[in-house]
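About this split. The held-out portion is used to measure sequence recovery: a designer receives only the structure tokens and must propose an amino acid at every position. Recovery is the fraction of positions where the proposal matches the reference. Here is one held-out target exactly as it appears in the evaluation file.
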């Protein structure tokens, strides 16, 4: 039954134009096979051509995508190299800055030590007068390194407001 319906649908165009033909079962099977073979060949040929075209289009699109990925990969690589160079530059600058800061701190500590030596050899009244007019931060750093007994004598000889302010900074610095 399926053969008949398929055969009629395949050959309906040519049969309608001709007069009605009568086939034996053997002739019908042969005609059906022939018609099916022609249709399958036509589909195969068009499908292979179409499939080939589609495959070529897909291959072209894949190559384009691969080229885009390669370009993007190259951009990323260049960006990474640039970033690595910038990081190296920043680290170099940072080490120079830290070196300068360390050098300045070392020199300041050396100057404070010298001032401590000078003030330690002064009379307490003269030392109190000098530290009272000095920058409070420096005065506190100097007092920190002076012997406690000498520092207390210096504080006692200072103006009470200045002494109180310096002692407060000294205590806050210790914390």
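Reference sequence for scoring:
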């Amino acid at each position: 039954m399926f053969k008949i319906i398929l055969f009629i649908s395949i050959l309906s165009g040519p049969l309608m134009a001709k007069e009605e033909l009568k086939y034996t079962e053997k002739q019908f099977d042969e005609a059906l096979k022939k018609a099916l073979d022609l249709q399958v060949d036509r589909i195969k040929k068009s499908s292979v051509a179409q499939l080939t075209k589609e495959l070529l289009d897909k291959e072209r699109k894949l190559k384009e995508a691969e080229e885009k990925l390669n370009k993007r990969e190259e951009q990323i690589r260049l960006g990474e190299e640039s970033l690595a160079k910038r990081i190296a530059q920043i680290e170099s600058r940072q080490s120079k800055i830290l070196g300068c800061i360390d050098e300045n701190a070392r020199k300041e500590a050396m100057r404070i030590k010298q001032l401590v030596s000078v003030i330690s050899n002064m009379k307490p009244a003269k030392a109190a007068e000098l530290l009272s007019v000095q920058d409070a931060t420096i005065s506190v750093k100097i007092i920190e390194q002076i012997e406690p007994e000498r520092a207390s004598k210096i504080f006692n000889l200072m103006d009470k407001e200045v002494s109180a302010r310096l002692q407060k900074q000294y205590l806050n610095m210790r914390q």
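Annotator remark: Residues 13-17 have pLDDT under 50 and may be disordered.
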